[in-house]
Amino acid sequence: MPCRNTSPEPRRVEAPDARPPSRDPATGHEGCIFRGRLAAARLPRYRIVVALDRSEYAEIVLEHAMDQAARHDSPELHFLTVVARARPGVEEARRALAELVLPAFEGFDYADWLVRLHVRSGVAHEEIASFASDVRANLIVLGRFGLHHRSGRLGSVASRVLDRASCPTLVIGLVDQAPDSQPQCGACVELRAITDGERWFCDEHAGRDRLSLGGLLG
């Protein structure tokens, strides 16, 4: 006897809402789904997996993910939150994810976008990389800090996702944190500006082991 597909069809809405999540018929994962008005058309899609948590950094990651999606004609975004196996509150995590993501689409032209919300339980870096592989993502976007990162170090989640991911991964840092660097020589900086980058080092810091950019490209 042939099997009948009982998976519900994705909802079509004119604007995003926060209705209770349904099962995603494409991946089998639980997720709240909305489509733009033109999303039903079979267009080549650029798939982005966006790993979000409930920290104060999530909005920064969301902003960068939206920017990446806007660069493509028919993006498909999968917003993902990972909770620990032993931790209750999966439904709460779904609601929190919807409350974070859906307002970002207010007043946004997403007519040809496809957006899905997902919650998985397990180890964060394993689930993020595995999920991206499942949906054949073209890009993963995640934050360097947040609740997914217990120790606050890059190696806690982001670098492990980088090791496991089968697609390019964009790691978002904090905009108010300048990278650690040595103070630059004022004469070197001025010389680079005057020569349009043909010379990088002043006489004091120039040496045979320091070639100018112009010399390397000339």
**Quaternary arrangement of the chains shown?**
single chain
Number of domains: 2
Question: DSSP strand (E) fraction?
Answer: 15-25%
Q: How far is it from the N-terminal to the C-terminal residue, by CA?
A: 72 Å
Strand order of the largest sheet: 3-6-5-4-7-8
Mean pLDDT: 76
Low-confidence stretches: 2-29, 148-154, 212-218
Q: Count of helical segments? A: 6
Q: State the CATH superfamily name of the largest domain.
A: HUPs
CATH architecture field of the largest domain: 3-Layer(aba) Sandwich
Query: SSE order, as H and E?
Result: EEEEHEHEHEHEHH
What's the quick description here?
The protein is built from six helices and eight strands. It is of the alpha/beta class and 218 residues long.
Q: How would you describe the overall organization of this protein?
A:
The protein has 218 residues and is of the alpha/beta class. It has two domains: 22-172, HUPs (Rossmann fold, 3-Layer(aba) Sandwich), CATH 3.40.50.620; 186-217, no CATH class. It is built from six helices and eight strands. The protein has helices at residues 58-70, 90-101, 124-134, 158-164, 186-194, 213-217; strands at residues 22-23, 30-31, 33-35, 46-51, 75-83, 114-121, 139-143, 169-172. Strands 3-6-5-4-7-8 form a six-stranded mixed sheet, with helices on both faces. Strands 1-2 form a two-stranded antiparallel sheet. It is elongated. The chain starts with 21 loop residues before the first strand and ends with a helix. Mean pLDDT is 76; it is low at 2-29, 148-154 and 212-218.
